[in-house]
Write a structure and sequence with these properties.
The protein is built from 4 helices and 13 strands. It is of the alpha+beta class and 267 residues long. It has one domain. The longest helix is centred in the C-terminal third of the chain and has 18 residues. It is globular, with a radius of gyration of 18 Å.
């Protein structure tokens, strides 16, 4: 990827169009590669000045609702700031970019969202990976490291039941990349996650996309390509689960307390 350059002075909401990829290595090989699109939202800028292309906390074919994140309050950025403060992250006063899926026709399912939390000078202070499972549970991983930077591998111990075909064991290795190619914030973003168990790498997952400013034209283009994306994500999850069952991959079911997992960043 090209070398990263500073983000524009006035951040603009972005719409990314790209791919989501997943590969299981054991006990049998299994993978998929689907087209996708997502939002990358500058939450502090949107608090100051709403984006006319984004329906926020109201109905529409495509919308963003704060209650879909954090503890469900009306201002998810306030939740994030409180949680960062509680974890000793006191310098994340710069822009906060939220990489997430929107609601479509009022339906939301967000397997994972990423909060990129910057300092006032533009450097990364922390990244929060907000994970939702199909049992209605939510858990957040706080990712920090000395001299945190794009491209750096960030480990986390697995603490939350996500797939019924994986146990709560081992850990994750996260890696994030972001490039900029224009004053409007256009560029590319990549998020990669490796899930390791006691035997080594088990799952390889990534979501990537080309970014451009969120405009009515860009949104219409994404909708034309994938008009029912959220329902498609849900359908594909169940289709892939069926394929894994047919391959006789062990099924572990719902872990006790999975639906009540706290939405708190955890190292």
């Amino acid at each position: 990827m090209a070398a990263s350059v500073p983000a524009p002075t006035l951040p603009q909401a972005q719409l990314g169009i790209g791919r989501v990829r997943h590969q299981r290595l054991r006990p049998v090989g299994h993978g998929f590669d689907y087209p996708t699109w997502f939002l990358l939202l500058p939450m502090r800028q949107l608090r100051r000045q709403p984006n006319p292309s984004l329906r926020r906390n109201r109905g529409g074919w495509v919308s963003f609702h704060d209650a879909d994140h954090g503890d469900g309050r009306a201002d998810c950025l306030a939740w994030l700031d409180e949680r960062l403060q509680a974890e000793g992250i006191t310098d994340a006063s710069g822009e906060v970019w939220l990489h997430t899926y929107p609601r479509m026709l009022g339906v939301a399912f967000k397997p994972v969202s990423f909060w990129y939390c910057h300092r006032a000078d533009g450097s990364l202070a922390a990244i929060v990976a907000e994970v939702n499972n199909t049992f209605g549970g939510r858990h957040c991983y706080l990712l920090t490291a000395p001299q945190l930077a794009w491209g750096q591998e960030l480990p986390a111990v697995k603490q939350f039941h996500v797939s019924p075909f994986c146990q709560i064991e081992g850990g994750y290795r996260f890696r994030f990349m972001r490039t900029h190619s224009g004053d409007d914030g256009a560029g590319r973003t990549v998020a990669r996650i490796v899930h390791d168990d006691a035997q080594g790498p088990l799952l390889l997952t990534s979501v990537s996309g080309d970014l451009a400013a969120l405009t009515p034209q860009r949104l219409h283009h994404a909708l034309w390509r994938m008009p029912l994306m959220t329902l498609g994500v849900i359908a594909r999850i169940h289709w892939q689960a069926l394929r894994l069952l047919l391959k006789r991959v062990p099924f572990f079911g719902k872990a006790p307390g999975a639906a009540a997992a706290p939405a708190l960043p955890t190292r």
